[in-house]
């Protein structure tokens, strides 16, 4: 949104109107004013859209209305076409449509409602309706394309039953690898309004290969670094796990179906007197692997909004996180104690 700036007097008026809207509990009006203030004090169009969870049409409409008639015109609620409300049945049908298909713009939803129910809404009217029936403008969560929900439910039931009845000297671990890249990862954070903060980054694509397993009960983590993640790094990790639990009669390792987990090298190792027993997750089920929660937590603590000038500093920060893993015990316990999510 180029060329949109607010004068000091306009800012004073907008802030006063915002304060009044908040006092009256008019959250919709306050939201509109907030968008204009942010755009007029240096925030980019895309940043405002993302921060306030608005679509492009809505942000553009706010600016146009403010330019045309100031605060009063911005806060007006107008409907185009005939003013109609959907019936209760129509609302339920609209909800079913929105649950089955993600519409990119408010205009597309308006078009659907007009064609399906012969009811016309303006953009602002449809936004109000969507908010009222419990919908908001946000990104979908990326999930595996072919999850077997029934298989996931069976796994969860069997896992929970096993954990209730297992012997005290049986350890249960979730295993996987993570590949942190030596590059800054931008994430949301508190930044002074109207200001932009730069985050330095690196042009290279160097990365680490970390292979780890976390104990489902004690939250103890075992991590090794390797040149590649394959059958041999898996065997090295198995060795480190068995050394860590010398008194365990059996070590159950829960892992995904990566091809190298089924390799002849792995099978040979397991037959050589190992106490490790493998339990494979259902296909396309990273949501069931509890160590995935730890990898996300690791990235948040070490990688988000942080610049490392060289790969050595980057590697040191990653390794120190896992060496001092105990300091995050409370946070990790909350992560690990959460229920499984079905994909």
Keywords:
343 residues, 5 strands, 3 domains, alpha/beta, Nucleotidyltransferase, domain 5
Descriptive overview:
The protein is elongated and about 80 Å long. The chain is built from 13 helices and 5 strands. It has 3 domains: 8-75; 88-132; 149-337, Nucleotidyltransferase, domain 5, CATH 3.30.420.10. The chain has helices at 8-24, 27-40, 45-51, 56-75, 88-100, 106-117, 123-132, 149-165, 231-244, 264-270, 291-302, 311-323, 329-337, and strands spanning 170-178, 210-215, 221-225, 250-255, 276-280. The two termini are 38 Å apart. It is of the alpha/beta class and 343 residues long.
Number of strands: 5
Total of DSSP H or I helical runs spanning 4+ residues:
13
> Widest sheet: strand order?
3-2-1-4-5
Instruction: Briefly note the structural class of the backbone.
Output: alpha/beta
Total count of domains:
3
How many strands, which pairing sense, and closed or not: the largest β-sheet? 5 strands, mixed
Give average pLDDT, whole number.
87
CATH superfamily of the largest domain: Ribonuclease H-like superfamily/Ribonuclease H
Main CATH class of the largest domain: Alpha Beta
- Helix-strand sequence: HHHHHHHHEEEHEHEHHH
Rg: 27 Å
Task: Indicate the CATH topology of the largest domain.
Answer: Nucleotidyltransferase, domain 5
Distance between the termini: 38 Å
Shape: elongated
Flag low-confidence runs.
79-83
Instruction: State the helicity in percent bands.
Output: 40-55%
CATH structural architecture of the largest domain = 2-Layer Sandwich
Percent strand: 5-15%
């Amino acid at each position: 949104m180029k060329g949109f700036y607010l004068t000091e007097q306009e800012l004073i008026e907008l802030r006063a109107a915002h304060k009044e809207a908040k006092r009256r509990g008019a959250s919709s009006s306050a939201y509109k004013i907030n968008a204009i203030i942010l755009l007029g004090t240096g925030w980019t169009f895309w940043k405002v859209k993302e921060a306030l969870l608005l679509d492009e049409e809505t942000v553009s409409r706010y600016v146009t209305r403010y330019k045309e008639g100031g605060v009063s015109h911005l806060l007006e609620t107008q409907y185009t076409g005939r003013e109609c409300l959907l019936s209760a049945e129509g609302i339920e049908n609209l909800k079913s449509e929105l649950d089955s298909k993600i519409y990119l713009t408010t205009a597309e939803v308006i078009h659907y409602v007009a064609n399906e129910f012969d009811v016309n809404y303006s953009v602002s009217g449809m936004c109000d309706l969507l908010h009222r029936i419990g919908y908001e403008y946000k990104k979908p969560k990326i999930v595996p394309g072919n999850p077997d929900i029934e298989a996931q439910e069976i796994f969860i039931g069997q896992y929970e039953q096993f954990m209730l009845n297992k012997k005290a000297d049986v350890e249960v671990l979730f295993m996987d690898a993570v590949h942190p890249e030596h590059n800054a990862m931008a994430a949301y954070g508190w930044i002074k309004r109207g200001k932009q903060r730069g985050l330095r980054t690196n042009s290279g694509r160097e990365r680490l290969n970390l292979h780890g397993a976390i104990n489902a009960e004690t939250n103890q983590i075992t991590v090794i670094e390797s040149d590649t993640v394959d059958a041999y790094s898996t065997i090295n990790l198995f060795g480190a796990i068995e050394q860590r639990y010398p008194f365990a009669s059996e070590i159950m390792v829960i892992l995904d179906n990566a091809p190298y987990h089924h390799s002849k090298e792995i099978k040979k190792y397991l037959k050589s007197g190992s106490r490790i027993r493998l339990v494979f997750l259902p296909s396309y089920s990273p949501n069931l692997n509890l160590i995935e929660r730890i990898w996300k937590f690791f990235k948040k603590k070490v990688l988000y909004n942080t610049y490392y000038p060289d790969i050595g500093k980057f590697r040191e920060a990653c390794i120190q996180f896992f060496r001092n893993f105990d300091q995050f015990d409370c946070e990790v316990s909350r992560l690990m104690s959460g229920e499984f999510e079905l994909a």
